[in-house]
Prior knowledge:
Layout: H1 9-12, E1 21-24, H2 34-43, E2 48-51, H3 62-67, E3 71-76, H4 83-91, E4 95-98, H5 101-113, E5 117-120, E6 134-137, E7 140-146, E8 152-161, E9 166-167, H6 176-180, E10 185-194, E11 213-216, H7 232-236
Parallel strand pairs: 1-2, 1-8, 2-3, 3-4, 8-10, 10-11
Antiparallel strand pairs: 5-7, 6-7, 8-9
Amino acid sequence: MINKTVKNAEEAIRDIENGMTLMLGGFGLCGIPENCINALVKKGVKELTCISNNAGVDDFGIGLMLQKRQLKKMIASYVGENAEFERQLLSGELEVELVPQGTLATRCMAAGYGMPAIFTPAGVGTEVAEGKEIRNFNGKDYLLEHAFDADFAIVKAWQGDTAGNLIYRSTARNFNPVMAMAGKITIAEVEHLVEPGELDPDQIHTPGIYVHRIFQGENYEKRIEQRTTRTKSEQHA
């Protein structure tokens, strides 16, 4: 069995260069590849195109890359928590493609399945459809969307083994699995790295066939994007 482990994030991203296209897994700040993002910031690569559900916050996640002006283009669904993103968008410094969330996930999935494109009703009749092919199936219009073409997919999992098999927890399963199967090279950072055979085969979400490099992550902050709590009176109601 092939051992796919690398020492750390710096080694995992060693051949990511200026101008490449990266997928970054996670949902909000949940399940994002914190170690690899920090390594990319430290390396200082620029002119990147990033595909992610969101753009982080001002001082965490992809927001750190935005602060360093490392992104040329952002392809995302939700970007409402990042003031620096907003500033770069409005000033014309950053190219932005907003994609409906389901379309974003399906374009990732199509890349993993080897499909060149999908047809979806999402976006028909809106600005999303401008300049794109529309085809009618059974009396309903559908928009042609191309599969993503990413040089690297960078994901974060709860557990993984040295062969690259991955298990995610809860909300971290949003986007990480579909991106893991979609990159030309997939890098996985995990909270717990174990030997093959230690993971329950029935619980594996991403088979190791999709993963090229894996390492044990460290010092995860696991920030909460929007903390919502109940008062004691509400808890007893």
